[in-house]
Description:
With about 150 residues, the chain is of the alpha/beta class. It is about 45% helix and about 15% strand.
Amino acid sequence: MLKPILLVEDDKRDLELTLIALERSQLANDVVVLRDGAQALEYLDRQGAHADRADGNPAVILLDLKLPKVTGLEVLQAVRANPSLRSIPVVMLTSSQEESDVLRSYELGVNAYVVKPVAFDRFVSAIAELGVFWAVLNEPPPGSLKAARKHE
């Protein structure tokens, strides 16, 4: 079973574009969509509405920086502080080019920081490449679901 891609995005337009881009990349992974940082933390911690979700972590978290309730930086910090979550690749997917946002994201352990391209074609291409890299090409740490299946 493929691990899902967790997409945390509050902007409706960016969400639709990201889903179109992931669909065009023809990944078989399910995409779990959450609209704020609090929902993301509940999902990852299997609490609240997500208490009965399937075991396992997502293949990658595509995380917007400026989210309601709990910011993307706060989600990233919580993920990196939790031993059972810290190996999940996290890609900050944002419109912010502020140096302080980029620096803080890397200080907190983000795997990649991607500024959302304005042009639709560039956006679709960037998201498709991200999805393929993190869900298919990236070699996960030993003990993860994908790595365990690979060695059977």
